Amino acid sequence: MAEGTVGAYDAVVVGAGHNGLVTAAYLAKNGLKVAVFEARHVVGGCAVTEELWPGFKISRLSYVNSLFRPDIVRELNLHKYGFEMLPRDPSSFTPFLDGRSLLLGPDKELCRREISKFSKKDAEAYPKYEELLTEISEVLEPMMEMIPPNPGKITFSDLTTYGGFLLRNRSKIKHQWSEIMRLMTGSATDLLNEWFESEELKTTLATDAVIGANASPSMPGTAYILFHHVMGECNGVRGVWGYMRGGMGAISNALADSCRAMGVDIFTSTPVQHIMVKDGKATGIVAGGGREYTAKIVVSGADPNVTFNKLMDEKDLPGDFVKQVRRINYDSASVKINLALSELPDFKAAPGKQVAPHHRGTIHICPDMQYIEEAYADSVRGAPSQNPILECTIPSAVDPTIAPPGKHVMNIFTQYGPYQLRNGTSWEQEKDAYLKRCIDILSEYAPNIKGAILHQEILTPVDLEKEFNLTGGNLFHGRMTLDQMFNMRPVPGYADYRSPVKGLYQCASGTHPGGGVMGTSGLNASKVILKDYARI
User: Fold this and answer.
1) Per-residue model confidence as pLDDT tens digits over 137-157
2) What is the pLDDT of residue 423?
3) Which of 6, 297, 423, 529 shows the smallest number of beta carbons within 10 Å?
4) CA distance 209 to 202
5) Which of 209, 169, 167 is nearest to 188 (CA)?
6) What is the DSSP string of 139-174?
7) Which residues make Cβ contacts (< 8 Å) with residue 268, sequence separation at least 6?
8) Out of 1.20.1250.20, 3.50.50.60, 1.20.120.640, 1.10.3720.10, which CATH number does the structure's domain 5-47+64-83+246-329+471-533 have?
9) What's the rounded Cα separation, in Å, for the pair 299 and 318?
10) pTM surpassing 0.90?
11) Secondary structure (H, E, C), 355-401
């Protein structure tokens, strides 16, 4: 070994987020000697559980699961290592200040009855709307695990793969082409206005079109974000979201245990400082303290900005590639709030402090569509929303293992809090006031909430960048709009998980198919790496 070198591997993975762990597991499963290096003290990246306060296990960032691929669970034997999903039924609850409320879930009769309180026409339309989204998802979901082609270099394999896909789905694509295009490019507002008349139903559905994005539902591209959230399954039931027993870190912990069982070395509290390159080829990484680990393969689970602008020398990359990477948009306006509660929120629209159906799913605090637009307008001005959108979950209502007896955990995903504030203010100055506004708004619907808070945490986009290494605080590793999706993700010509440097790959959400706890990026990357490995 060279001086300073302390380990040699076939492959090293930068970051122990869920995608990095998926990639590591599949490489190890195919006989490679693999190591994973994680800067934080715990594995998981955005899918992490931490006991911030004694007895309270907090899913600090991502908080519900549906998109994680069942084939990964099966092939990596994750159930053996504690992977257990807990379905939510009902799936959502939207209270209104006039005392009414809307429950939605997998029970079709419940949805019909609840929506009828606001519009009998919408109650009839809703099953057809869900049927349309299901039909389109059945067509498009297989593309998630297909390697995007490079339009400037179409291969015979691309023609075979995508030609076969088009032939198998030609009748469905022909039948649904206009709807597919509207979903891919249109606005959530236009889509929902076409289907429904009830402001209450449209508002409930519209929040899924903006959560995690710095956009309003009237902006083009938000229909796809809405659609992105309806894919997936929970225990074989399509479109159902669930909690992970033990918090979202249970996914990452199961993956880590599966990796270790196959011989993967996982180093936590070990940040990668530099990706080594020699003669146009990746040769390993430099970890904390200047320790070098050599490898034929380097896989980055960090976002493209961190990977190519922070961990590499610009001279090791083509100039046009660096230019494209610097064009990636990381706009973010999400602020996460985590609470430890002495009791459940007692909603005016559904009184009671005992666990009830409305406590189990996502609680939408957002009265109408104009409210969302006005909240977004504040963000455009460079200010945190005066009246933020709140998406609240109480996973302890379904999973009692994450809180002490009789107490509860609440996760609140809020919009909008832009990364870059204007008028000379900073998030350190604004975060306490923003947190107070969010709690004040929630207390209008559940007056006991202020007195129930035992502990609280707020994570602004600046916090997310600093602690979790997310550029701009963007949970998805880059904006999920059409100009940054499919073969444009992360940049044109490199959507196949490769990079201009031989032996250097990407595997995280900055690649196709994008953000969310899916594991698909990691799975796809491993397939490409294993295909290339013998030639490197």
Assistant:
1) 888 888 888 999 888 788 878
2) 84
3) 423
4) 11
5) 209
6) HHGGGGGSPPP-TTS--HHHHHHHHHHHHHHHHHHH
7) 16, 38, 40, 41, 42, 43
8) 3.50.50.60
9) 19
10) yes
11) CCHHHHCEEEECCCHHHHHHHHHHHHCCCCCCCCEEEEECHHHCCHH
Strands 265-267 and 242-244: unpaired
Percent of the chain whose pLDDT exceeds 70: 97
Identify the CA nearest to 222 among candidates 461, 480, 414, 418: 480
- Overall residue count recorded for the chain in this entry: 536
Residue 103, C-beta contacts closer than 8 angstroms, at least 6 positions apart: 90, 92, 93, 110, 114, 357, 358, 361
Tokens of 104: 């939605």
pLDDT 10s digits, 331-363: 989 999 999 999 999 999 999 999 999 999 999
> How far apart are alpha carbons 390 and 364 in whole angstroms?
6
DSSP one-letter code for 484? G
Q: Write a three-state SS string for 57-106.
A: EEECCCCCECCCCHHHHHHCCHHHHCCCEEECCCCEEEECCCCCEEEECC
Residues in CB range of 474: below 8 A, 6 or more apart: 303, 330, 331, 332, 461, 464
Helix (H) or strand (E) holding 493: none
